[in-house]
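Entry 14. Structure prediction run on the chain below.
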Amino acid sequence: MMIASLCMLCVAVMIVGWLMVCGYLWTWGPFSSLSDERFRRLAGNDEQYSLEKVTPLTNSPIAGMHICYLGSSVTFGAASLQTSFVEYIAKRNSATYVKEAVSGTTLVDEGIDSYISRLKKIDQSTRFDLFVCQLSTNDATQNKQLGKVAGKGQAYDTKTVCGAIEFIISYVRETWDCPVVFYTNSHYESETYASMVAALKEIRQVYGIGVIDLYTDEAFNDVSEDAYRLYMADNIHPTRAGYLLWWTPKIEEELYALVGRN
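Output returned:
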């Protein structure tokens, strides 16, 4: 009887695990394109918010810049038909870009798709004027170790969030010698992610990087419930409307200020 119960429990655990894997694969993973139809029906992904409808700005401070973006599903645009603030900024500001974004990946260096593994594969001979990196929510949802700030020139524990961020900053500066900017998600309830944002600000003080903090910006997050439903597919992933009308103007404002300081 006990053996039978244990067998049933094992089968149940395997089924739940398989469903979780399938959910990831179809929603944010390598088969995410097959779920585009579900996102296409969202009001925030209406054709009026498509990239084709965007008009370039005049006299942009970042016009002509070549920008590298490193991130996961939010940088990729997983819930917005693969259009994120990356494409909107490029179109609006007459800039070019490399978007190295894979859904479900982490800053913490684990596996061939981690931020650091993919960073090392970017052509070192490319000239970048700016490097923008996402503070990944996946490290929070997967409970990756936060770690501590080591400081310039120290050994970085890339198996921790802090160590991975420090490594990325150092690698980018040594390889491309361009300004480094990290951006956070808009606010959602997560003590773990809040701790990551706080750590990122500590790292900013040590390394002098740019930080676009959408998470703790109360004015930025002060949107109506109706607007939030239009802007977000869930509490983490924006729609096209969310990127175009909410995130992009704020990120542009911060990038303009950064360029003015450098």
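Residues 9-34 have pLDDT under 50 and may be disordered.
Filed with the rest of this week's runs.
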